[in-house]
Specification:
It is a single chain. By secondary structure, the chain is of the alpha/beta class. Among the domains are: 135 residues, NAD(P)-binding Rossmann-like Domain (Rossmann fold); 161 residues, Rossmann fold; 78 residues, ATP-grasp fold, A domain (Dna Ligase, domain 1); 113 residues, D-amino Acid Aminotransferase, Chain A, domain 1 (2-Layer Sandwich). The protein has 24 helices and 31 strands. The protein has a seven-stranded mixed beta sheet with strand order 3-4-2-1-5-6-7, sandwiched between helices. Strands 9-8-11-10-12-13-14 form a seven-stranded mixed beta sheet, sandwiched between helices. Strands 21, 26, 27, 28, 29, 30 and 31 form a seven-stranded antiparallel beta sheet that branches. α3 packs parallel to α4, α17 crosses α24 and α22 crosses α24. The radius of gyration is 31 Å and the shape is flat. The two termini are 13 Å apart.
């Protein structure tokens, strides 16, 4: 793969994305035009806003002065919007750069997202020109950006001026302009955020550059990132490193995960959609928190903007409704969260404050009596927050109190409690009355997190614990892997099983002892030298799935059985694969039974070489219980992959069976990943299936490789 382009220095984007002066090129008198809407959205910006349109030179447009050309502007605008059709964009961009401007957002579409090759070339020319001029571009085909700190509404979406929420700790970055602005509209209901930027086609700046800029904003604590595709997804790793260094969090949603959605993503932005599993593995490697639906973006990002590292491992549930407590406990259990029972001192406080028809347990049912005895509510909540077992407290609200001040007052009581304890309180908003003073008070709080879905709330807490758990060491390519990869013959070819396993052995993987035989006599002699019982396999570069053609014969205990098996293999291959090249058979020692895994590798166009581990043999395709990561992985990372499998208990002594040597298996996975990473762009795919895992180690008994040029 080509050398990865570095992230753009956030300081180089300050003028574009956090401007002190602003210009709109292409403003008409029509108030619904894109340029006019942008000027209207800049109403509360306290810097100069200049319009450019020769038709209205010397006049005012929408309350702002208008000039005949960019050259006539009284100063160099920090940031600009080019609200012109595509044919006028290049000249406007050059004029702004020559004026000394700091960058521009381009609304126009019709570039690489079309099926027209000449338009893709036109976009490349625009990119090259902007970079040669040192003039950063947002878009093309974008919706603009918002800097909520300075009331910059550099977008054609209407009514930014209605978004009056205070500045908060969430930044939003989206390739899709409409989705980015849809998230930004949460500011109308009081959700506090600081910045929103849309990448569109990412002609110059992509979502990684924009997210890096937001991470550098002091007010920003988390970024909600909506991705369709990237020219080079490895940039996510650099972005993740930056977030870790700054102690901030990126919550990410990948669009185009289905086949139809992936095609739509490519036509929308002209970006590669890539493999869904590879994207998820890439996000995880980058330390980003992937959510599965759009509804979870702001709730999750908002929580991480407010919450520090967990101070315990459990979740406490406090509620005036027994039913809401049960529902919350169900979702917590589904998410794999711990719900420890209160410590004795905590339980003593709960028993003294809760009626006997309530429950001083976890979930803690305060009953409806809490409405008549606010003091008991406060005592119980303080006791639960003080319990060292609980990292967070969940408080489901089941009704929107008809008294206009009751619910927001409750929020104002909870806020200092959460602040004093250093623990987040999660408000589960269950009423179908979705808006009101209570939700606005929760959103405005720096210590309360509002969720409109119990499932999403518990999933966010699951991500929180996982995010702050120790992470495996990164993998590396050692000298053994480098030498083994260098010894693999060059050229586009498929390696037969024996050749592939020889390469795996050179990389340090344990491989079954075997011999090649051209005829029945040779097979019998090889079996005698190896020791019975043995296995015979058809030796052919054209037959990948040997069992489907009768090409595997097991547990052969003497020379006569070997000779007969040889004949059956030849007959089956001739019948089922008459065109296949047959080079005889492989004779292998019959290995003892064990848990079978598959190790796989392939080249992803976005992330490079990936490694896969899952249940092996025929189960691999049946259950699809696999874990994927970017190669190479360390032994610690390989062990984490193994533990993520649903079938992991089979490796760990399920129902009294022997535990396999997990350290040896993890080492094998790591060595395999290092070898395939060392192959680089030469790798097309590689597979060991099965890797037989036992208490005394593991061994590869079958394998294949395909190489590209």
């Amino acid at each position: 793969m080509p050398v990865m382009e570095s992230l753009r220095d956030p300081n180089s984007l300050k003028r574009l994305l956090a401007p002190r002066s602003f210009a709109v090129v292409g403003v008409s008198a029509e108030p619904t035009g894109f340029g006019a809407r942008t000027v209207q959205n800049m109403r509360d910006f306290d810097g100069p806003v200049w319009c450019v349109n020769p038709k209205y030179a010397g006049q005012e447009l929408h309350g702002r002065p208008c000039y005949a050309s960019v050259a006539d502007l009284p100063g160099a605008p920090d940031s600009s919007v080019i609200a012109l059709p595509r044919p006028g964009v290049m000249d406007a961009m050059r004029a702004l750069a020559n004026k000394g401007g700091g960058g521009a957002a381009i609304y126009a579409s019709g570039y690489g997202e079309t099926d027209l090759p000449e338009r893709a070339v036109e976009e490349e020319v625009l990119r090259d020109a902007s970079r040669s001029l040192g003039f950063p571009l947002l878009g093309a085909n974008c919706l603009g950006f918002v800097d909520h700190r300075q009331r910059v509404g550099a977008t054609f979406m209407p009514d930014y001026v209605k978004m009056t929420a205070p500045v908060g700790g969430v930044g939003v970055v989206s390739q899709s302009g409409a989705l980015g602005y849809a998230l930004m509209q949460a500011a109308e209901r009081g959700f506090a955020m600081c910045h929103m930027a849309t990448a569109g086609n990412a002609t110059d700046l992509d979502v990684c550059d924009l997210a890096a800029f937001q991470l550098a904003i002091p007010e920003c604590r988390s970024v909600a990132l909506v991705v369709e595709g990237l020219r080079d997804a490895r940039r996510l790793f650099a972005l993740g490193d930056m977030a870790r260094h700054l102690g901030k969090t990126i919550v990410v949603l990948k669009l185009g995960r289905g086949e139809i959605g992936a095609k739509a993503a490519m036509s929308h932005t002209g970006s590669l959609a890539g493999s869904t599993a590879a994207w998820s593995a890439g996000f995880k490697r980058a330390g980003m928190l992937e959510v599965e639906d759009f509804d979870a973006m702001l709730e999750t990002a908002g929580f991480f903007a407010k919450a520090g590292p967990p101070k315990g491992r459990g979740v406490g549930i406090v509620t005036p409704s027994g039913g809401a407590g049960i529902m919350s406990a169900d979702h917590a259990e589904f998410a794999g969260l711990e719900l420890p029972q209160p410590a004795p001192e905590t339980e003593r406080v709960l028993r003294s404050a809760i009626p006997d028809f309530g429950s001083p347990r976890n979930p803690c049912d305060l009953t409806a009596q809490v409405a008549t005895n606010p003091k008991s509510f406060e005592e119980c909540m303080v006791a639960m927050l003080a319990d060292e077992q609980y990292a967070a407290i969940v408080f489901p609200i089941v009704y929107h109190n008809p008294a206009p001040t009751a619910t927001p007052t409750r929020m104002r009581v909870l806020d200092p409690m959460a602040a004093a304890s250093g623990k987040p309180i999660c408000i589960g908003w269950i009423p179908e009355s979705l808006q009101g003073a209570g939700t606005e008070a929760a959103d405005a709080s720096q210590h309360l997190s509002l969720f409109r879905s119990t499932r999403r709330m518990m999933n966010t807490l699951r991500l929180w614990f996982a995010h702050h758990a120790p992470k495996p060491m990164p993998g590396s390519i050692d000298a053994l892997a480098t030498a083994a990869a260098a010894a693999v013959p060059l050229g586009e070819r498929s390696l037969m099983e024996a050749e592939a396993k020889s390469a795996f052995a050179a990389a340090g993987l344990p491989v079954v002892d075997e011999r090649r035989a051209k005829d029945a006599a040779g097979a019998a002699a090889a079996a005698a030298s190896l020791g019975f019982p043995v296995v015979l396999k058809v030796d052919s570069p054209d037959i990948a799935h040997k069992t489907e053609v009768g090409g595997v014969q097991l547990n052969l205990t003497d020379e006569a059985a070997v000779s007969a098996a040889f004949a059956r293999i030849m007959e089956g291959a001739k019948r089922h694969a008459p065109e296949a090249r047959i080079d005889g058979v492989l004779v292998q020692r019959m290995e003892a039974r064990g848990v079978e895994l598959i190790l796989g590798a392939s080249r992803d166009p976005q992330f490079g070489n990936m490694v896969l581990v899952g249940l092996g043999g025929v189960q691999a395709e049946l259950w699809k219980d696999v874990s994927l990561d970017v190669a190479p992985v360390s032994p610690e990372g390989a062990l984490a992959m193994l533990k993520s499998l649903k079938g992991f208990p089979l490796l760990d002594g399920f129902r009294g069976s022997d535990k396999v040597d997990l350290a040896a298996v993890a080492q094998a996975v790591s060595r395999f990943s290092g070898f395939v990473a060392a192959l680089g762009e030469r790798l097309e795919e590689a597979e060991i299936n099965p890797l037989v895992c036992r208490p005394n180690g593991c061994i590869a008994v079958d394998g294949l490789m395909k190489l590209s040029r």
